[in-house]
Design a protein that fits this description.
Blueprint lengths: L10 E5 L5 H10 L3 E5 L3 H4 L8 E3 L3 H8 L5 E5 L4 H12 L5 E4 L3 H13 L4 H4 L2 E2 L14
Parallel strand pairs: 1-2, 1-4, 2-3, 4-5, 5-6
Helix pairs in contact: 3-4
Amino acid sequence: MFLHVFNPPPRLIIVGAVHIAEPLSRMAASAGYLVVLIDPRRGFASRRQFQAFNIIGDWPDVAMEKERPDEHTAVVTLTHDPKLDDAALRVALRSNAFYIGCLGSKKTHLARLARLRTAGFDDADLARLHGPVGLAVAPGRLLR
């Protein structure tokens, strides 16, 4: 018996067409991810560097509900704006997304956790959040 599994390609949903969304989108695409960029702010999402990707201009919670993150989906929020990021995170935390990351400082992340806890999410839900997302780089030190 031969078995051949056909999984869909992994998907990365990025919330926020900010400066680091461009290199993140390109790296994800080169790694085989389908990239979806969500940002209702037309001045951000309509920039030329994002035209190669699927751009959704809806409010993040509406867009996330339409996209239906599943076990093949990673979600990363980049806006630093709770109105946008938290809206997306509420949907992502109720989904089966395999990774949920949030940009921001440790202080910002603690405030985010408090807001989401107030919104009804428990410690098990919040443990799924990776934040602050990114590499910790110490100023004045070279990475080896």
